[in-house]
Write a structure and sequence with these properties.
Length: 90
């Protein structure tokens, strides 16, 4: 999470400025999906490999959320966004 927290403002600015939010989202999602898929290759005793895959999957997921959230203003109506922040959706 520290890596994502430190790199998110920089990457988010790059993505917004260049208009490549979707590419960054796909890249981070692919990292997460690929790491989780590689879990099936782990065998007994492969603790460090599993730890590295967990780190990669977490970086992919948390990093992807930055770019996913950047799309919300374009997708959701303003009254829906405000209602979801206050828990008023039912």
């Amino acid at each position: 999470m520290a890596f994502v927290a430190l790199s998110s403002p920089f990457l988010g600015g790059m993505a917004d400025y260049s208009g490549r939010r979707k590419r960054f989202l796909v890249l981070y999602a692919s990292l997460s999906i690929g790491a989780v898929a590689c879990f099936s290759l782990l065998r007994a005793g492969m603790v460090m490999e599993g730890f590295i895959l967990i780190l990669a999957a977490n970086i992919g997921m948390e990093g992807g959320l930055v770019f996913y959230n950047a799309f919300l203003p374009e997708i959701a109506k303003e009254n829906t966004r405000a209602a979801s922040l206050h828990g008023d959706l039912a």
